[in-house]
Amino acid sequence: MRTLFKNIGQLVQVRESSSAIIRGSMMSDLPVIEDAYLLVEDDLIAEYGAMTTWDSRTVNETIDVQGRLLMPTFVDSHTHMVFAANREEEFVMKIKGMDYQSIAKAGGGILNSAKKLQNASIDELYEGAASRLSNAIRHGTGAIEIKSGYGLTTEAELKMLQVIARLKDSFDIPIKATFLGAHAFPDENKEKYITSIIQEMLPEIYSTGLADYVDTFCEVGYYTPEQMEEVLVAADKYELRPKVHVNQFNSIGGIEVAISNNALSVDHLEVLTEEEINLLKDSDTIPVALPGCSFFINIPFSPARKIIENGLPLVLASDFNPGSAPSFNMSLINSLACIKMRLLPEEAINATTYNAAFALELENEVGSITKGKKANFIISKEPITPATIAYNFGVDWIGTVFINGGEFG
Ligand code: NIG
Ligand code: FE
Q1: Which of 62, 83, 93, 288 gives a 20 to 30 Å CA spacing to 258?
Q2: Where are the beta strands (DSSP E) in 169-264?
Q3: Each residue of 318-350: pLDDT tens digit?
Q4: Does domain 75-358 fall into CATH 3.20.20.140?
């Protein structure tokens, strides 16, 4: 089956190959072909080029894009999409003046989500997550990472990972599962809980193949760098590479531990020292910023300009979760990055598509318009330029989402 998409006004993020993540000043380079065509063969991108070079060969179907924009779907490399309930009551507490940490101490936060999740059935959790995931795809996400971490018992953590496995089976987009047992402590007996992660959860996860990565929340009041190290070293024995929460409120040494344990990415980075930037420069660990979280809980935005100006690569993700970032809208993430972090629209698109694929080791499958990659892309409603996506903040610009060459929804 060959489908031709013709008269594309702007064919965005066209790359010959995905050999390396984009860093530093190269992040402002977004390759675009104007007045272009795209040929899809079955579920893959087969060919592309300027309309003037199209050789008029026979195809099964032709779609006239009528001057609109076509770009790869977003890659959302950090979400907590499986949860039992929203936390609107905490939203109101926040409006009235309480901060994230005080809300957690007052019975909200991760422990609030864990209590509700422990009582929810696997079917209920699946239904909720599947409906959110469909909605996220309609908002342009075509590959995603989903974490556990609201279980905090062996049974409930495994239940979350089983829900993610079911999502992998029923959705035709790449999904990566991350085990975040070390998200919080269920009670005062911290060593006992860490022992259950190491002796019960990790072996079970390994034998069932339920996770692709391991995560820990390294923060004051949560996991110390030493506790994080203990979990990461144990997870390494079960072949789980770290993608971790660090430096959301405080710099306490998590980045150093992440790098020395070969982390694929370090996520949050609202607080980032010169020293830590230098450590990242000497490593392959990818910095991931989460502007939706900064916006929603009113904390500083990650110094993304500084990250890029130091020659590092940058990835942006939604952090979608019921407590600190209840939105999976990656277009809005582009707006926040441009408006609050002073990223150029081109940098934001690179950070949410091409580079983001590297943060999930999916760079050979998604993230750009490249021959052989999945035909996962978005066509705009109107003829627009790439900058419009961030500029018209909160405005729905998405006309159609294609997944594996077919219209989604
Ligand atoms: O990435 N910071 C840690 N975890 C989540 C928030 C979890 C929650 O509040 O439920 C985050 O922001
Ligand atoms: Fe998170």
Answers
A1: 83
A2: 175-182, 213-218, 241-246
A3: 999 999 999 999 999 999 999 999 999 999 999
A4: yes
CA distance 83 to 352: 24
Atom in ligand 1 nearest the alpha carbon of residue 297: 12
Q: Which ligand is nearest to the CA of 246?
A: 1
> Over the chain, what is the mean pLDDT?
98
Distance between Cα 23 and ligand 2 center (Å): 23
Distance 323 CA to ligand 1 centre (A): 6
Please give the Cα distance from 262 to 281 (Å, whole number): 14
Check for a shared fold between 2-73+368-407 and 75-358: no
Instruction: Report the nearest atom of ligand 1 relative to the CA of 268.
Output: 1
Q: Which residues pair with 214 in a beta bridge?
A: 179, 242
Q: Whose CA is nearest to atom 8 of ligand 1?
A: 323
Query: How do residues 282-299 score in pLDDT, each as one tens digit?
Result: 999 999 999 999 999 999
pLDDT digits (tens, 9 = 90+) for 62-104: 999 999 999 999 999 999 999 999 999 999 999 999 999 999 9
Q: What is the DSSP string of 50-94?
A: EGGG------SEEEE-TT-EEEEPEEE--B----S---HHHHHHH
Eight-state DSSP code of residue 311 = T
List the chain domain ranges: 2-73+368-407, 75-358
Residue 173 CB partners (closer than 8 Å, separation 6+): 73, 137, 141, 142, 143, 144, 376, 403
Q: Could you identify the residue written with the tokens 């994080």? A: 228
- Cα–Cα–Cα angle for 194, 245, 261, rounded to 5 degrees: 70
CATH for 2-73+368-407 is 2.30.40.10
Q: How many CB atoms lie within 10 A of CB 213?
A: 22
Where helices occur in 171-253 by DSSP H, the ranges are 190-196, 202-208, 225-237
Q: Find the residues whose C-beta lies inside 6 A of ligand 1.
A: 109-110, 113, 217, 245, 248, 293, 319, 321-325
In this prediction, residue 120 carries a pLDDT of 98
| Cα 80 to middle of ligand 2, angstroms | 6
Q: How far apart are CA 24 and CA 217, in angstroms?
A: 27
